[in-house]
Amino acid sequence: MIGYPYIWVLAAGLIIVLFLLIALVSPVTIQGEMRRDGENDDIEINFKALFGLLRYKLKIRSIDFSGKAIRLHEHLMGTSIGMSSKDEKHDEIDTHRVMVGIEKYKRAAALTYNLSHWAKQTLAKIRLEEWKWSTAVGTGDAMWTAMATGALWSVKTTTLGVLSQFVKLRAEPRVDVQPVYAQACFRTEWNCIAKIGLGNAIMAGLHLLVRLRNAKEGVQAWRSLLFKA
Q1: Nearest-CA neighbor of 30 among 196, 181, 177?
Q2: Which residues of the chain are modeled with pLDDT < 50?
Q3: Which of 206, 209, 200 is CA-nearest to residue 24?
Q4: Cα separation of 45 and 78, whole Å?
Q5: Which chain regions cross the lipid bilayer (predicted)?
């Protein structure tokens, strides 16, 4: 018969195991929101895991198009088991940075065994719980407004068609384009909620590590590729 002190140890162990199992099946939630009205921008991405114990929020307060570059004003807030952190910075995306990003992706694909297959497998485990995208557009001219409306419908339906090939759509997507013939304007609002099980996310990370270790130059080369200037 199990002694009295060991009953509490066993009970505590079972509670910990139960909590870990629940945590593994709990969802990692990513919620994105974007609004643009004329020159005013508001982009926010929220990340939540472990029943809200881990939270991160990226907020882009402004997007300025100047010459050949895009300037972003970013605000990052994070909460990890009661500890909070904040960071604010200005970022710039130009043609050179885009080309460097493309080269990094090519290099990462070369360092990782069958990276595209891993990406498809991971995306297939993501559940898209909400997708709303409404836009109002006007050019001041009826013909050009009608053409812009048709082009936007085409972009939105094509985006949904491609997206549905990779992730699971759990809710009916809500897409709308409203022509405004009286004046020139552009307003758009987008909302998205995506979820993936924490266990699936961890397994995806482990599978990626295995593929990296099978790569010729290994994990260290991949890490230097991501963090080098």
Answers
A1: 196
A2: 1, 229
A3: 200
A4: 12
A5: 6-26
Residue type, 210: V
Structure tokens of 42? 């508001």
User: What's the whole-number average pLDDT of the chain?
Assistant: 77
Distance of CA 161 to the CA centre of its chain: 18
**pLDDT for residue 1:** 47
The 3-state DSSP composition of the chain as helix, strand, coil percent (nearest 5) reads: 45, 40, 15
- Cβ atoms 49, 200 nearer than 8 A: no
Integer CA distances (angstroms), 226 to 52, 107, 134, 203, in order: 28, 10, 35, 21
SS3 per residue for 31-92 = EEEEEEECCEEEEEEEEEEHHHCEEEEEEEEEEEEECCEEEEEEEEEEEECCEEEEEEEEEE
Residue-wise burial string across 26-55, b where 16 or more C-beta atoms lie within 10 A, e elsewhere: bbbbbbbbbebeeeebebebbebbeeeeeb
